[in-house]
Amino acid sequence: MAAHEEDPNRPDPHQDPMHPGDPLTSDAQLEKRVADTHGLPGDEMTALERMEAEIEPLVENVSPDLAPAVEEFMAETALANEAESAAVADDSQFSGTAGLEGASFATAEVGPYISFQHVCKSFGDFVVLKDVSFFVNPGETLCILGRSGVGKSVSLQIIMGFLKPDSGTVLVAGQEIAGLTEREMQQVRQKVTMVFQSGALFDSITVGENVAFPLRERGDMREDQILLVVRGLLEMVGVAGMEDHLPSDLSTGMKRSVAIARALAAQPSAVLYDEPTTMVDPLMGNLLCELIQRLKTQLHLTSIVVTHDMRFAEKLADRVVFLHEGRARFFGTMEEMRASDDPILCEFLAMDELVLPGRPMPEAPVEKAL
Ligand SMILES: Nc1ncnc2c1ncn2[C@@H]1O[C@H](COP(=O)(O)OP(=O)(O)OP(=O)(O)O)[C@@H](O)[C@H]1O
């Protein structure tokens, strides 16, 4: 097609892509729609304007024909997250600092979005978590650190309700999850979603169908709207044009990017990431790290990241919890961790210095010629 010819399939830039037939969403219309959807008062407009301005950099690499759809979709998420954070802050269910004695409570004046209080978990006789307590406040990022097998992934699975703790209290989205039915837990999982190490994509359907899945589940979006948001989200996470591929065609890093796009399609308040930078090259690792950082600041996402990568933790974490022998050996800010003289923690950090990617590895002993 010649450059000047109009593509009949190209969305009309003067039409609202989320609500075709409407003129392009004016600020007032968008304010009303988001207010209707999330029950926010009409005077939230200034917040919404700020939100859209914040979100702009997130969609800067998205094609102009897709950007408005993604921007509006993400603005809804960001605004809902602000409201959610406020609701958690007001929630009287939060039972204070029980089980977190000795931790840093510098910013704990709002209730945590997710917390463990004295959590224990065993598999048969094998005790994984003996008495673990930590929290993450709304909009903050917690990194879970520790050697292999200390229960980092088990902790994430407890938060998602896939595993049940033997004792202790777990708050997710500000509410205690112990007594919830599976159906209630599914509602919690709409707010708090997880990006697995493997991506955990559905292998038999395309990348686009994977990302469209949560959008179709909502039941209130038309197919053409869904396609716009899917393509836009894939561009946003750096895997443009992959919608017709099967997950098996993708590299590990690309699968994780698609898994993040699918998680975002559910408009979550919190995302749990299990080893997002493991087994990808340093460039892909940096891209994923930057994406997670942008999602945190621009969407006000609460995040928990299980990682072995200290540089990643340094960039992202508001707080860290260091698990060791079934306990939260350290819980506090990155700065407090660096200042700690705990020998076990110091040894862990020293080991990390030795194997940090990008730094020269310690010289291997030269083998003697036989
Ligand atoms: N469903 C399960 N049944 C029995 N044991 C389990 C189960 N899930 C995890 N475990 C055990 O719990 C321990 C902690 O596992 P987990 O996956 O949380 O470790 P991790 O800290 O994430 O380690 P890594 O960094 O190697 O991924 C391991 O010994 C694991 O074998």
TrEMBL record:
Signal sequence segment: none
InterPro entries found in the cross-reference section: AAA+_ATPase, ABC_transporter-like_ATP-bd, P-loop_NTPase
Region entry Disordered, spans: 1-41
Basic and acidic residues bias locations: 1-19
GO MF terms held by the record: ATP binding; ATP hydrolysis activity
Domain ABC transporter: 114-350
Nucleotide-binding as UniProt keyword: yes
Name of the featured protein: Phospholipid/cholesterol/gamma-HCH transport system ATP-binding protein
Species the sequence originates in: Bryocella elongata
